[in-house]
Amino acid sequence: MPGTSHRTTGLLAAAAVATLALAACGSSGGSSSGGGAGAVKIGLITKTETNPFFVKMKEGAKKEADAKGATLMTAAGKFDGDNASQVTAIENMVAAGVKGIMITPSDTKAIIPAIEKARAKKVLVIALDTPTDPQSAVDALFATNNFTAGELIGKYAKATLGDKPAKIATLDLAPGVTVGVLRHNGFLSGFGVSGIDAKASAQATAPQVVCSQDTAGDQAKGQTAMENCLQKNPDLNLVYTINEPAALGANTALKAAGKDKNVLVVSVDGGCTGVKAVQDGKIAATSQQYPLKMASQGVDAIVDFAKGGTKASGYTDTGVTLITAKSAAGVDSKDVQFGLDSCWG
Description:
alpha/beta, Rossmann fold, 2 domains, seven-stranded mixed beta sheet, 11 helices, 13 strands, disordered N terminus
């Protein structure tokens, strides 16, 4: 902070670490690293501490913060959907004097009041990966276009199935979470379902969808959801999944039912485990995104803001690539080797 002595800054930094450690009691992690006395302080709050996506995001943020001489403070929820821990982390980081906070919101609506309070104190708030609802609640968004990610696997599924009538199971995230809605609706749009609104706040439906289940992006819940859908519609032939853990759970259920060779499974994320699952034939295609890029660009934006630069605003698309071992006519994609070279986790 301008005009603050090195001694005071050091005490604040120490207090910040202690505060975030307390916050970690209500979340799955909290830490401070990089920089020194007088360094720009940056906060990173992820949905969880252990998900490889967020591990890579944290890695990217730390690497860039170190390169810029900034101090990175981190915190996370105990589980996907843990809004209370994220609220506490925002409050603690603001009290510690951060210039900006990057957050992957667990509850895209419930987090808004905490974000508003931070912004009122002149803290730059950037959403990573998952848009808030509304998106304008933050200063900026650095993320994959999740609707496009869904569209890519929808187009791939349509091209692969051809004229065969589709009987689709969607293994979704949770009601009302923007990233889940965008991927789900993008998938249906890419598959050719008409009337899909890219800005809709609710999941679209379609006659081809014979079963929909929420999984919270969890592998065990993905398996249970797939088992439920198979009981309801044993002849389904296409499965959309919110992410690769859910897809791997679906594969386990399909294999147990002797249907894993007859059902097309598509997903989103592009983590190393997911790409290897594409290589092994457990997932037909996945849309790969780039969490390290999101975080490093977010750090740069906060450092620039802290040093009097332009305030980040609007949406920055960090890219998405369809990864598959078997390309489909008319659908842009990269092979498994590209996916392995670019994957995370």
